[in-house]
Design a protein that fits this description.
single chain; 134 residues; mainly alpha
């Protein structure tokens, strides 16, 4: 028979990561999501998040690994953009420079009543050979 109140004792002891495991989390954090990292460690994502709360250094290591990877990719992207890779330059400007591609077309045209025109007059307009349309 169990002694004590519900929730006291029982269950598995909490998982605590050592320095080597935390170092591994930093390295893997560069390439894996938290869910993937939990799968790799053979624990649930909820367990991983609980460990992060108990051991703030685990969360810090994960963030550091992710940040290092992002910095490396961003550096490579900037290098490619500066060395003439137009696609890289456009991608960088769209994501970091708030640059947008847009087509702005201005039309300066007179609108005419064409209901009384002959087919020949309409053909001239379509070819652009009509001098004035009113």
């Amino acid at each position: 028979m169990k002694k004590g109140a519900q929730g006291d004792g029982g269950g598995q002891p909490p998982i605590v990561f050592d320095a080597e495991q935390i170092s591994q989390i930093e390295k893997l954090g560069a390439v894996l999501s938290k869910g993937q990292l939990a799968d790799y460690l053979e624990i649930s994502e909820n367990t991983f998040r609980a460990i992060e709360q108990r051991q703030p250094e685990v969360l810090a290591a994960y963030k550091k690994g992710k940040s290092k990877a992002l910095a490396s990719v961003a550096s490579n992207l900037i290098n490619q953009a500066q060395n003439g890779n137009t696609t890289a330059a456009i991608f960088y400007m769209k994501t970091q420079g708030r640059w947008r591609e847009s087509t702005h077309l201005e039309v300066d045209a007179k609108v005419s009543d064409v209901t009384g025109m002959s087919d020949a007059e309409l053909a001239d307009i379509a070819r652009g050979s009509s001098a004035d349309i009113t």
